[in-house]
């Protein structure tokens, strides 16, 4: 499931069932915002972990191609690493 789907499927806690409609809406809205913020934070952490992994792959690639020059014959991996680094450095 995507973060969007997770946010859209946040359920209202049963504690608000049967309460005043306005109060229930306000409390549910507040709780949904907090739950959405938690999901977004979790996604941000995962994104940072993926960026760290890409950086580690780039470092290892540099090491490996220096040890084994035959690995860089066609240059496709250099292009892939360059594209990956460009994509993680976008704001």
In short:
The protein has 91 residues and is mainly α.
Give a verbal description of the structure.
- 73% of the residues lie in helices and 0% in strands.
- 0% of the residues are buried.
- Helix 2 runs antiparallel to helix 3 (76-88).
- It has 91 residues and is mainly α.
- It has helices at 3-8, 21-67, 76-88.
- The protein is built from three helices and no strands.
- Binned strand content: under 5%
The shape, in one word, is rod-shaped
- List the total number of helices: 3
N-to-C SSE series? Answer: HHH
- How many E-type strands? 0
Helix content: over 70%
Uncertain residue ranges = none
Based on CA atoms alone, the radius of gyration comes out at 22 Å
The secondary structure category is: mainly alpha
Quote the distance from N terminus to C terminus.
25 Å
Describe the largest sheet: none
Q: Mean of the pLDDT scores?
A: 81
Question: Would you spell out the secondary-structure blueprint of this structure?
Answer:
Elements: H1 3-8, H2 21-67, H3 76-88
Helix pairs in contact: 2-3
């Amino acid at each position: 499931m995507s973060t969007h789907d997770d946010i859209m499927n946040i359920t209202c806690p049963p504690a608000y069932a049967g309460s005043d409609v306005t109060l229930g809406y306000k409390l549910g809205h507040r709780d949904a915002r907090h739950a959405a913020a938690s999901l977004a934070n979790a996604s941000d952490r995962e994104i940072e972990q993926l960026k760290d992994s890409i950086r580690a792959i780039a470092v290892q690639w540099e090491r490996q191609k220096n040890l084994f020059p035959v690995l860089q014959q066609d240059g496709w991996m250099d292009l892939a690493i360059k594209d990956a680094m460009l994509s993680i450095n976008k704001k």
